[in-house]
TrEMBL record:
Organism this protein belongs to: Amycolatopsis alkalitolerans
Keywords: Acyltransferase, Cell shape, Cell wall biogenesis/degradation, Peptidoglycan synthesis, Signal, Transferase
One Gene Ontology cellular component: extracellular region
UniProt key word Metal-binding: no
InterPro entries (alphabetical): Big_10 (IPR041280), LD-transpeptidase (IPR050979), LD_TPept_cat_dom (IPR005490), TAT_signal (IPR006311), Transpep_catalytic_dom (IPR038063)
Protein's name in the database: L,D-transpeptidase
Keyword Transcription regulation set for record: no
One GO biological process term: cell wall organization
Source superkingdom: Bacteria
Catalytic center residues: H319, C337
Length: 389
């Protein structure tokens, strides 16, 4: 097929030949061809492109879908999901780019139907489909504290995964935390399934905290992807700190830095390090009006105690033990828990918040750093070393 330049040249040559023939005269009719060869219709100048491209596979679910036109203006763009529903999106000011505003689903097919008009006023169209990535496994992510919780000043923010993750640095980059006032803190990995944020010092009282784990669509490693983003908004309450020096047989409660209560207690048996109440800074993990205690090693099962505040996953609680009243305030003889008289245990229970710090000193037993709540059992420098960044 001749291009436009070839057609014009041929027309000029034909015309020149006709002039020469006329000038030379000669017999015959002199009846050559009349006019130029017909021109081929030009193609539209506009060009439509899409990202992901038509027929693409394993497209990222977080990358916005774009449809672009060069040398023209978009007249309509529709992107529909497998259910036939349109994906939300918008045009830029000069309608040369359409960009989606929805996050895409895993393992889904999306179909384009786009049209544009070129600067030559000729229409062009784009049609076709692409598919998004299908994770080898989808991992459930949770965040704690939950929405609208009021917590103590030692409460960490904890993000947990239903299976092991590998890309810890990428995960940590996707964790966002905002506070109503300046708080220095750091994320730290406690295991391949848990990353916590704790402040350098206790949270300031009445701090508002917003935490977002924007993990959907991020490769968590090993073909695993998060099922969904998780977020939380919670409030740090008043500052209450419990301090126990085990040889003193006393549990002191400080609020706003001032001592507000002092309760006689019995702590873990001093003569058996395995029964000591461990040293370290713990937090109130749960509040249970009734708790059942079992320890076959020491010969007791199904023991019901009231006003129980768990302080570790190692088995330690602060709880009522009226049966041990003769020792409370005088002798340490428990199996590691902090025993209080009934009325004192109830009063403390009512005053406690999940996340209140409990500082224990004077014991021979170190804190159990294999717990999933051990954020305050290590130094600040050691905690920062647990970050993947």
């Amino acid at each position: 097929m001749m291009d436009r330049r070839s057609v014009v040249k041929a027309a000029l040559v034909t015309g020149a030949g006709a002039v020469v023939a006329a000038c030379t005269g000669g017999g015959g009719s002199g009846g050559g061809t009349d006019g130029a060869a017909p021109a081929t219709e030009s193609r539209p100048v506009a060009k439509l492109t899409a990202q992901p491209a038509v027929d693409a596979h394993d497209a990222a679910v977080l990358q916005p879908v774009t449809v672009r036109v060069a040398d023209g203006r978009l007249t309509d763009v529709k992107l529909t999901n497998a259910d036939g529903h349109a994906v939300e999106g918008s045009f830029n000011t000069d309608r040369t780019v359409w960009t989606s505003s929805e996050v895409l689903g895993y393992g889904k097919t999306y179909t384009y139907a786009a049209s544009a008009t070129g600067t030559d006023q000729k229409p062009v169209q784009l049609a076709g489909s692409f598919t998004t990535l299908t994770p080898a496994r989808q991992i459930r992510v949770t965040i704690n504290p939950g929405d609208d919780a009021e917590v103590g000043v030692g409460m960490p923010v904890s993000v947990k995964f239903s299976s092991d993750v590998q890309n810890k640095a990428e995960i940590e980059k996707a964790l966002m935390l905002e506070t109503s006032g300046h708080v220095e803190g750091s994320w730290g990995w406690l295991s391949d399934r848990q990353v916590d944020f704790r402040p350098k010092e206790y949270w300031p009282a009445n701090t508002q905290v917003n935490a977002d784990a924007k993990l959907y669509g991020i490769d968590l490693g090993g073909g695993g992807y998060a099922r969904a983003d998780v977020t939380t908004k919670f409030t740090v309450g008043r500052s209450q700190v419990v301090k126990i020096h085990t040889p003193d047989h006393v549990m002191n409660v400080y609020r706003g830095g001032a001592k507000v209560n002092s309760y006689p207690c019995s702590n873990g048996l001093d003569s058996d390090v395995n029964r000591n109440t461990p040293n370290g800074t713990f937090i109130i993990m749960t509040r249970e009006p009734h708790a059942i205690f079992d320890n076959a090693r020491y010969g007791y099962t199904n023991v019901n105690k009231k006003w129980a505040c768990r302080i570790s996953n190692h088995g330690e609680f602060i709880h009522e033990n009226q049966d041990n009243a003769a020792a409370i305030g005088k002798v340490n003889n428990s199996h590691g828990c902090v025993n209080l008289l009934d009325a004192d245990a109830k009063e403390f229970f009512d005053s406690a918040l999940i996340g209140d710090p409990v500082e224990i000193t004077g014991s021979r037993l170190a804190g159990p750093v294999n717990s999933d709540v051990m954020d305050w059992l290590v130094s600040w420098s050691a905690w920062r070393g647990k970050s993947a960044l």
